[in-house]
Amino acid sequence: MADAPKRVVIIGAGQAGGQAAYSLRLAGYEGAITLIGDEPAPPYQRPPLSKAYFKGEMEAERLFLKPLEYYAEHQIDLITGKTVNAIDLQARQVEIAGGQVATWDRLVIATGARPRKLAIEGAHLNNILELRTLADVDRLKQLAVPGARLVVVGAGYIGLEAAAVGVQLGLKVTVLEAMPQVLSRVAGPEIGAFYTHIHRAAGTDIRLGARLEAFEGVGQVTGVRIHGGEIITADFVLVGVGVLPNLELALQAGLVCGNGVVVDANMRTSHPDVFAAGDVAWRPLPHYGREGRLESVHNAIEGGKLAAAAMLGQPAPALDVPWFWSDQFDLKLQTAGLWTGADQTLVRGDPQSRAFAAFYLKEGRVIAVDAVNAAPEYIVGKKLVASQAQVAPAELVDKSISMKDIGARALG
Amino acid sequence: MPKITYIDATGKERVVEAKNGMTVMETAIKHNVPGIDADCGGACACATCHVYVDAAFTDKVGKPSAMEQSMLDFAENVQPNSRLSCQIKVRDDLDGLRVTTPESQH
Description:
CATH class of the largest domain in chain A: Alpha Beta
Strand order of the largest sheet of chain B: 2-1-5-3-4
Strand content of chain A: 25-35%
CATH class of chain B: Alpha Beta
Number of domains of chain B: 1
Radius of gyration of chain B: 12 Å
CATH superfamily of chain B: Beta-grasp domain
Structural class of chain B: alpha+beta
CATH superfamily of the largest domain in chain A: FAD/NAD(P)-binding domain
Helix content of chain A: 25-40%
Distance between the termini of chain A: 40 Å
Largest sheet of chain B: 5 strands, mixed
Order of helices and strands of chain B: EEHEHHEE
Number of helices of chain A: 11
CATH architecture of the largest domain in chain A: 3-Layer(bba) Sandwich
Shape of chain A: globular
Largest interface: A-B, 29 and 21 residues
Oligomer: heterodimer
Number of strands of chain B: 5
Structural class of chain A: alpha/beta
CATH architecture of chain B: Roll
CATH topology of chain B: Ubiquitin-like (UB roll)
């Protein structure tokens, strides 16, 4: 066992970096903690950005994970608005923009991810926005005046949540999606079809299989040209087509990276004293027998906790099944597990009732569940995923049997 | 401003001044009250802000919504006075509210 840590530096002050710092203090670590973020705000929750915060129902301060005073009270040196230029593994230092140097004996890389940009004509025009940070949404809010025309590119969680808020704010919204269904990366076709219907009923023009050719305009975007030549008029555009991990510092330092910084079950990178957590980490997914990168609150919190425990030589906390949620209109979508690889989908409940769930099975075991306004399906589904228990498909779709009973039978 | 008392599983009490409109969960986070994780930040999606409401306040606080009740139905160590603190909004008549946090939120 290496020496106990005395100086921890955390690069990235998002949910994962913040959690690593909080967990270190909660566990009784008394050494130095330097938490460096490139945004002006202290660590904050990102999920409400495309929901309540965009809608204007929540001020920025309510998003902060801890009140500002917390950091001084807990001797966490929080450096905001500063990027890190380089990691020196030999000298065990990081170089912060402006010339400051921070020395570490344990390092956490929690640099997150950045929105993927579209490499098409006109992508440089003004009023083509993305949605990742408080500053991004503050710009969106300025442009989101009633009657304005918003074109959303990409029908993932971010795009659809923003589209739902946009319609509620009185915008004229068009959503362009390259795939034949919405939410195609994260959910099955049953859920996709349901949300397409919901958004269309609310007045949003959803175009599936839409191929973008160019952003039109001079200086400022005025429209989006799609394959076939049609131009969809836009006062502003939101691009939500996924994210790329911020790997540059780890790569430059020589750490092993793939589509993320490669870590073991304890979030330890190829260097024994360097950890990675959050969106940037390529980690084992023990419920699925493979590795991957997750972009979620659950993953950020769990990664921060795992890294802190490993640094202090404490037992790792129990691992949760990956979980996600999305709020659109009056609908709460709760997801447990990862549906990729499913060989069967079972729908429980009637989508018309706006409360139903899709269970994704592989070889007779539930590997994921998408529950719309259906908390029992979500919670029991999550337990089924965790236990990898066999379930009877006929029971799972039978609404006369409660989820509690289904859970009790399958879990024994 | 209404006062809220948070009691942890060991019986330790913390009294804080709350702001109307904020939730009991947010008030705890703002004042560094331990024992409430609130992983999802108040979206009623994770059930890690579970509290027990003092008997004198259960009527005033009211009953959980259907969604919250479903989340509670499957949480650990649930009692009839269990609530998710992210779903209780602070208001004047909750002055003096006492809530107890469970031993663990997971």
